Amino acid sequence: MKLIKYVRWVARCLFAFMLSTAGAGAADEAVNSLQGRLKSLYPGTQFTDVVASELAGIFEVVLGRNVAYTDSDGRYFLFGHLFDMSAQLDLTAQRKDRLQRVDFSELPLGDAIKTVHGSGSRVFAVFSDPDCPYCKRLEPELAKIDDATIYTFLMPLVQLHVNARENAINVWCAGDRAHAWSQFMLHNETPKSRSCDHPVDRNVSLGERLQINGTPTLIAADGRIMPGAASAAQIEAWLANSRMSEPGAGSGAMDRP
User: Fold this and answer.
1) pTM score of the predicted model
2) How many degrees, rounded to 5, is the angle at CA 61 between CA 59 and CA 64?
């Protein structure tokens, strides 16, 4: 009897496995079919990911850092947030947070101005424009952050500030970049005109690749992004990985080209 029960149990397990495999295969086929349909319908749009969502028959599609939902036809789209009410989770916000993260290890830190406060134990980066008023508003707040290493990538928005590139180059070419940056941003002390090999244009290209569309923008060591002129208290909470660390936790005040 025990042998018969065991054989039946194995048979049920195999049957369940076959059903799950068939279901996974059908889901993969549906996703592949939708990917091809979207490419045909919208040749000018880059869909970076298509997956089955938690809703039956509805697919999640990723467009850059945006998330939308569509059915298998790909004609109608929903732009909004999908919630798991049972778990009280904003699934779309979680997905967007993952999409917006930056691989900090790939940032060319040698192209940034390094400023160390205290032990320098907490590390983050800032993309900043020397002529951006919101960046100037941020600098006094950054000065209040203890035990931090801050890498400032000079990213002049020349569409808005005609002298920003020149000022960025002059700061970079100064003998003490961190001091020159601080004096310029905190005390309006214009750096002397200088020339040298500089990363300013590379930084602008880097910002574009990372889809940083305004200054200031902060990037934590774990890749989280916070745009805008945040207060010291907001930055502290963001570094501590509180709810304020989600994208948009700053004041929202930033220069955009």
Assistant:
1) 0.69
2) 170
